[in-house]
Amino acid sequence: MATKKGNSKGPSSSVIAQNKKARFEYHINETLEAGLVLAGWEVKSLRAGKAQLTDTYILVRNGEAFLLGSHIMPLNTASTHEIADPTRTRKLLLHRKEIAKIFSVTQDKGHTCVPLKLYWKRNKVKCELALVTGKQLHDKRATEKDRDWSRQKGRIMREHNKA
């Protein structure tokens, strides 16, 4: 079977940063893809993997969507002529209908919009957004229980395959 030439990296290599806390804290109702408006030093930092999405959320203001709370650490070698703000508000590139949908859903009580991950799509940085509702304590416990059981199943299967 022939293999593809060029990109030998796996599919997970395109992910820059993930918001694992969001998957634990919220029920994900719907996901969207958005582009990001970035400065040159931010792109260099993202290539080096210096990004964090914990405690990040999406804000819709004046018909535009913004990413608040994301942290992109500037590199020492980049941005010598520019003052780099690692937590600046970054604009999201979405269609008008998508922005209207995010705005209308987030007006409901208990609903919000959070980023799930930053990733490369060809040579562009994309952000996967999710329209979510908050989980209650018993839902979080069930998630932990399922995670522990799947881990235990994996151990049992490995032990069984060795024998």
Automatic annotation (TrEMBL):
GO cellular component entries: cytosol
GO biological process: trans-translation; trans-translation-dependent protein tagging
Protein localization: Cytoplasm
GO molecular function, one term: RNA binding
PROSITE patterns, alphabetized: SSRP (PS01317)
The UniProt record lists the keyword Cytoplasm: yes
InterPro entries in alphabetical order: SmpB, SsrA-bd_prot, SsrA-bd_prot_CS
Pfam family, one: SmpB
SUPFAM superfamilies membership: Small protein B (SmpB) (SSF74982)
Gene3D superfamilies assigned to the protein according to its UniProt record, in alphabetical order: 2.40.280.10
Ranges where the record places region Disordered: 141-163
Transmembrane segments: none
Assigned keywords, A-Z: Cytoplasm, RNA-binding
Highest taxon, organism lineage: Bacteria
CDD domains documented for this protein: SmpB (cd09294)
Role noted for this protein: Required for rescue of stalled ribosomes mediated by trans-translation. Binds to transfer-messenger RNA (tmRNA), required for stable association of tmRNA with ribosomes. tmRNA and SmpB together mimic tRNA shape, replacing the anticodon stem-loop with SmpB. tmRNA is encoded by the ssrA gene; the 2 termini fold to resemble tRNA(Ala) and it encodes a 'tag peptide', a short internal open reading frame. During trans-translation Ala-aminoacylated tmRNA acts like a tRNA, entering the A-site of stalled ribosomes, displacing the stalled mRNA.
Family under the similarity heading: Belongs to the SmpB family.
Name of the protein: SsrA-binding protein
Natural source organism: Vreelandella andesensis
